[in-house]
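Input chain follows. Return C-alpha cells only.
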Amino acid sequence: FLNSRDSEHSWKEHDFCFSFCIFWAYFRAVISYSCETSMQSLLQAGFIPGKLFLS
C-alpha cells in the first residue's frame, strides 16, 4: 500500500503542518488579545468614541 519511506515523509510533513497550525493559532491569539487590551485602554482613556468602537 505505502512503502515506509513515503509514509515517514508524509508523517514528517503532517508533523510540520501540525506544529505550524498550533504556532499560528497561538500567534493569532496573542495578537488579538493585545489588540483588544490596547483598544480597551484607549477606550478608557477616551481616545476612541464609543459608537465607533461598538459599530
